[in-house]
Amino acid sequence: MTGVIAAIRPDEWNVPLLVHVLGAMILVGAVMTAVVAQLSADATAVPARMRSVAFRTLLFLGIPSWFAMAAGAQWIYDKEFGDVEEDPAWIGIGFITRELGGLLLLIATICAGIASRKNKSGLAKASAILAAIALIGWVVAIWAMGAKPD
Amino acid sequence: MSLDDWILSLHVLSAFALVAAEVAFTIMVVSLWRSDSPARVAGMMRVAKVGALMVMIGISGTLIFGIWLAISLDAYQLWDGWVIAALILWALGGFLGQKSGEGYTAGGELAEKLSAEGVTSSPELAETFGASRAFWFHNATLIVVLLILIVMIWKPGA
Description:
The complex is a heterodimer of chains A (150) and B (158).
Chain A (H helix, E strand, L loop, with lengths): L1 H5 L7 H27 L6 H35 L7 H30 L2 H27 L3
Helix pairs in contact in A: 2-3, 2-5, 3-4, 4-5
Chain B lengths: L2 H29 L6 H35 L8 H36 L6 H6 L4 H22 L4
Helix pairs in contact in B: 1-2, 1-5, 2-3, 3-5
């Protein structure tokens, strides 16, 4: 019941939570779109255009929303767990997926940029796989944020 | 972890699916802004189809698991003001999203047909993927989805 109890929270946590959740939602949508665009590019009549859309999506939406999600997470963490000695497991899951996911997102964006510029199909797919791995990690994090395992 | 914790988690995952789909549609709208190219539109329809699947998962999951939680948890009731507000916004968002989807789906089907015929330019597509009715319905859907998120976080009156 920890997750359900945690759903009833002080009002001053709401703004950082909105920043965190909205950032995470936009991040998931942006990365999902980029993965689909990269993986389906070769099956369309405009593969270069699809790779360009994927790259721009990661660069202009994915990375900024990662920063919003991460800043919101830190903001609410400071309010909720500022004085706590040991973090619960779901916080650990959140931190790990945030940091590793961010690194994968950065590498995927660089790969997508090169793939878009030089029209390299293999590199575009590598970018999609890296982004998809980050996405899977974030889905686990979303589950943990909701269920809040100890 | 209790069953309610799992249901809350599935409710949140459904909400993410719904908003992720709206983000995907927004990227499609922006990247195809006033595009008259059937090939470009047809290409982005692959993203839109994944988005449509995510909307179905999100819209049904948020409703089913949300109502489950409102019934199951002592802290909340189905007739709480914020729950009723969320349900009204959910229905409004579903209506607006459907209207937007109808417009863009028709544009996508036309693009796939024209692309298969080798047509390279269509003013009708440029109109659909510009400031069309579907575009305004999409923007209204985004506002409603944001309002739902705000209601879910603030829970006014709870």
